[in-house]
Design brief:
With 535 residues, the protein is of the alpha+beta class. It has helices spanning 2-18, 43-52, 109-127, 163-172, 181-184, 194-208, 232-241, 281-284, 289-294, 332-341, 515-519; strands spanning 25-29, 57-60, 66-67, 100-101, 104-105, 107-108, 132-140, 146-151, 213-218, 248-252, 301-304, 321-326, 344-348, 354-361, 364-370, 374-378, 383-390, 410-417, 437-444, 458-459, 461-464, 467-474, 481-488, 523-526, 529-534. It has 2 domains: 27-252 and 300-341, TIM Barrel; 355-535, no CATH class. The strands form 4 sheets. The protein has a 16-stranded mixed sheet that branches. A 5-stranded antiparallel sheet has the order 15-14-17-22-21. It has a two-stranded antiparallel ribbon with strand order 3-6.
Length: 535
């Protein structure tokens, strides 16, 4: 803890000495598991780990459907596995349609949320009063796979509850086949199935909780598109239905500590055949699915989460992956608003711990836009892109090798062209790539490095305490554009890690995976800034 306090003091001092304005980026994780579903740890232990690894906010969001164990009293954090089955209690507390799994009666997840899990969240808020802790859940999205689902209504009232979330789970989760318990609450279960039910669920959120809910698609590349996966048409449908709710995906999955299975649990059958520098192909490939969505002008954002289940294949929340989200404060509503805004950047292994990225009209520093927002400019104007990032000067949370203070090697500016929303009836609606996105600038410590496309890097400016600054001009803008960033600890043409243009290679080249290898392969990604020229 001594190091972390010192680290914070150095950070504040560096802000003052370099005249950089500190922004309120909160560190968060909204996808993790306990023994309520298929995690190995009790909910209390997992709350402790969120706090230990420095998160400002987090959400308990594990699978919908059913639950065998009481996570308040079940877990193996002591090395002795404890499984406290719901049907061991007398009287039996389980409501709803009876279902047996492993010779025990399951409790439906809507009841777990309402009667048990949320009570543990309330306890955690008292234990960690400086943190914002949400009750969410990982939805089994009908016709597809998973998504992190949150409804914050009622959770912070004078008499708090998570009834709206419980109702949603009963109505729409693919894994919840209870027809009795929820009905006794007055809830009406959806009669649809598959993709149509997924769209119905988003419409219900849009109509009932438009500003207080979110559905972020989880590990979207993990399954083939023709099974439970996510095609770009699927994502467009979901975003069209509720653009303020289904506003992003977790294309940087958890499970980076896996050793017996591929990194991120992305098997050869996954879309892309694995992860690329720890990211799914949808976000890792320039001109891929994410760029196709952004090239429509969609406000669709990139997130990363731990998906922590156990120590076997996972890092704890905040230990390896973090979302940094700009908020106006620390309330649940401000956090949801921050996620929706797109002003989030994601990082692995604390490669950087601060990022300031904005675009302004050259010569007019008062008119600028940050991640997730749009800068309107007169046609033909020149813009200036400003980037300030901090490479921490101390150790990260790597305890698996001696590589504990990684060095940022370079930062790329990626530009894409925006052509407008594609309509469902268009033949382009199923197209999941674009050829109008590319790296337009690269910055590093020395400059002068030429990549395979002939792009020559520029030298960034060091301003002390790990801070680097850089800027780039784009002249005579006549069509809508967007700009996003990526950075890594790797040089170009790093064997089995990057190609001659600095793009991440498939992580199968580094198998078998390990915690040490994950901590040696680090990236950060920003969300985009849009620029719109007008007459």
């Amino acid at each position: 803890m001594t190091f972390r306090i010192t680290h914070y003091i150095v950070f504040i001092t560096s802000l003052l000495s370099t005249n950089i304005v500190a922004q309120s980026y909160l560190k968060g994780d909204f996808h993790q598991h306990t023994t309520y579903t298929d995690g190995s740890f009790s909910i209390g232990y997992m709350m402790q780990k969120n706090n230990e690894f420095g998160l400002d906010w987090w959400a308990n969001s594990e699978h919908g459907g059913s639950s065998l164990f009481n996570a308040r009293t079940s877990g193996n954090e002591t090395g002795i596995e404890i499984k406290d089955y719901w049907d061991n209690y007398n009287p039996n507390p389980i409501l709803g349609t009876k279902k047996i799994n492993n010779n025990h009666q399951i409790m439906w997840r809507w009841q777990v949320l309402r009667d048990s899990s949320f009570a543990e969240i309330l306890k955690a808020r008292k234990l960690y009063p400086g943190k914002t802790i949400l009750q969410s859940y990982e939805m089994n999205i009908p016709g597809h796979e998973h998504g992190s689902l949150g409804i914050i209504n009622n959770q912070f009232d004078s008499l708090p509850n998570c009834n709206p979330l419980s109702e949603f789970e009963y109505k729409f989760d693919q894994g919840d086949t209870d027809t009795l318990g929820g009905a006794l609450q007055g809830w009406v279960k959806s009669k649809l199935s598959g993709h149509a039910k997924a769209i119905e669920s988003l419409a219900w959120l849009r109509d009932n909780y438009p500003n207080t809910s979110y559905l972020v698609i989880a590990h979207p590349e993990r399954y083939p598109q023709h099974t439970r996966g996510y095609s770009i048409a699927t994502i467009r449908d979901m975003n069209n239905t509720a653009p303020g709710i289904c506003f992003g995906f977790e294309s940087i999955p958890g499970h980076h500590r896996e050793t017996t299975r591929p990194r991120g649990l992305y098997e050869r059958t996954s879309v892309g055949g694995g992860t690329y520098g720890g990211a799914g192909v949808y976000s890792a490939k320039i001109g891929g699915m994410w760029d196709a969505l952004l090239s429509e002008g969609r406000r669709f954002w990139l997130f990363a989460n731990s998906d922590c289940h156990s120590e076997v294949g996972d890092f704890y929340p905040g230990q390896y992956l973090k979302n940094y989200t700009y908020t106006e404060g620390k309330s649940a509503q401000q956090i949801v608003d921050g996620l929706r805004s797109g002003n989030t950047w994601v990082v692995m292994g604390d490669l950087i711990d601060s990022l300031i990225f904005h675009v302004e009209i050259l010569g007019d520093s008062q008119r600028k836009a940050s991640m997730g927002s749009q800068l309107h400019i007169p046609v033909g104007k020149t813009i200036k892109i400003t980037i300030k990032a901090r490479d921490p000067q101390g150790n990260n949370f790597n305890t698996y090798s001696n590589y504990r203070n990684p060095v940022l090697n370079h930062i790329d500016i990626i530009q894409g062209k925006v052509s407008g929303i594609i309509k469902p009836e268009s033949a382009e609606y199923n197209k999941d790539s674009v050829n109008t996105t590319s790296v337009i600038a690269r910055f590093d410590a020395n400059g002068g490095v030429t990549d395979g496309r002939g792009l020559i890097s520029s030298k960034w400016k060091r301003t002390g305490n790990g801070w680097v600054e850089m800027s780039f001009k784009v002249v005579n803008i006549t069509q809508p554009l967007y700009f996003r960033l990526r950075g890594t600890n790797h040089k170009l043409n790093e064997p089995n890690e990057t190609d001659d243009c600095g793009n991440p290679l498939n992580d199968v080249l580094m198998e078998p995976n390990s915690a040490a290898k994950a901590f040696a392969d680090l990236w950060f990604y920003s969300n985009p800034v849009f620029v719109n020229p007008i007459q």
